[in-house]
Design a protein that fits this description.
single chain, 33% helix, 103 residues, two-stranded antiparallel ribbon, alpha+beta
């Protein structure tokens, strides 16, 4: 099993009306976090935040399609429980994503 390390949410957008959040490991020193933040802000035009910003990327690469027969009836699968040891990690990750505004 893997361990999810603590992260720090950093907005690297130069425009105050735009959100460009990245997560940086919390185990770095404040100086290192500031260095990475400055680096990301300097090169923010290199990073993309949506598919619209990536011209030339074929939609078939980033889109998922579920092939079905036209007359097929969708069936909901039975809910299966998670391993109890993983539930705490899943809850922590969902809370982090909710707090960051990704969900």
């Amino acid at each position: 099993m893997f361990v999810i390390s603590q992260t720090v949410l950093v907005n690297i957008s130069r425009n105050p009306n735009t959100i460009g959040n990245v997560f940086i490991g919390a185990n770095y020193s404040l100086g290192e976090i500031q260095t990475y933040t400055d680096l990301f802000k300097e090169f923010c035009d290199v990073f993309t935040w949506s598919y619209e910003e990536m011209p030339g990327i074929y939609p078939s690469i980033v889109q998922h399609e579920i092939m079905m027969y036209e007359n097929a009836k969708p069936i909901r699968q039975k809910l299966r429980p998670f391993n109890p040891r993983k539930v705490a990690v899943i809850k922590a990750e969902v809370k982090k994503l909710l707090k960051a505004g990704f969900i």
